[in-house]
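Incident log, support desk, overnight shift.

02:14 A customer reports that sequence design results differ from what the structure should imply. Their input is reproduced verbatim below. On-call engineer (initials T.W.) acknowledged and began investigating.
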C-alpha cells in the first residue's frame, strides 16, 4: 500500500450536513471532530456542505456511470474520493435529515462504495428518525455503516434566544463515550482494510 493511499484511508470527513444560515451543526460537528480525534489513529477533517455549494442534482447521466459533466461534480468527487470514511453530522428536520445532504449523496456513486460511514444527528430527542432514514440511504450506496449512532439531544434549554448553543461542550459532554465508540468502530474497519 502506498503512503498516499494509507493517508487517504485514515482520513475521515466530518460532513456538516446542514446549510441553514443559523444552523448549529458546525459547532456540533467541531465538538464531535475534536472529541473523536483525541487519541485516535485516524485524522478527522471538516467538510461543510455550505462550502461545497452543490446545486440541485443537475448531472444528465446517472452517477453510477461516473461520467460527470459539471466541474462542481468533479470537484465533489475528488473531495469524497480523498477520504477513507465519513461521519455525517446533521440536524433532524421534520423527522428527516436535510435535503442538502441527500442531494450531496446523490451526486456520486462509486466514491461512497465500501467506505465506512458513521451518523451523528441532533435534535430535541436526538434525531433518531432522521438517523433511520439516512442509514437506509447509506445502505443503498453500499457503504459500511458502523453500529454506533450518535443521537445528540439538544433541547430548548441548551440554546439562547437566537437558537444558538450556549455551551456546546456542556451540552454534548454526556455523549463523549459514544463518540469514542464511533472512533473505535471506524478505526477497526479501516485497520481491517489495510491488512
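02:41 Re-run completed on a clean worker. Output:
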Amino acid at each position: 500500500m502506498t503512503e498516499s493511499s494509507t493517508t487517504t484511508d485514515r482520513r475521515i470527513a466530518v460532513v456538516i450536513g446542514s446549510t441553514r444560515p443559523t444552523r448549529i451543526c458546525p459547532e456540533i460537528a467541531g465538538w464531535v471532530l475534536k472529541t473523536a480525534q483525541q487519541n485516535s489513529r485516524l485524522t478527522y477533517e471538516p467538510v461543510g456542505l455550505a462550502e461545497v455549494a452543490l446545486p440541485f442534482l443537475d448531472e444528465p447521466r446517472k452517477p453510477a456511470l461516473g461520467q460527470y459533466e459539471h466541474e462542481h461534480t468533479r470537484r465533489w468527487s475528488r473531495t469524497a474520493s480523498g477520504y477513507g470514511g465519513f461521519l455525517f453530522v446533521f440536524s433532524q428536520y421534520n423527522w428527516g435529515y436535510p435535503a442538502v445532504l441527500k442531494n450531496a449523496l446523490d451526486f456520486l456513486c462509486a466514491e461512497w462504495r465500501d467506505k465506512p460511514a458513521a451518523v451523528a444527528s441532533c435534535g430535541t430527542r436526538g434525531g433518531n428518525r432522521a438517523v433511520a432514514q439516512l442509514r437506509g440511504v447509506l445502505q443503498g450506496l453500499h457503504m459500511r455503516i458502523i453500529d454506533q449512532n450518535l443521537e445528540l439531544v439538544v433541547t430548548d434549554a441548551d440554546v439562547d434566544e437566537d437558537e444558538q448553543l450556549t455551551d456546546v461542550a456542556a451540552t454534548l459532554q454526556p455523549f463523549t463515550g459514544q463518540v469514542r465508540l464511533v472512533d473505535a468502530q471506524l478505526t477497526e474497519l479501516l485497520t481491517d482494510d489495510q491488512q
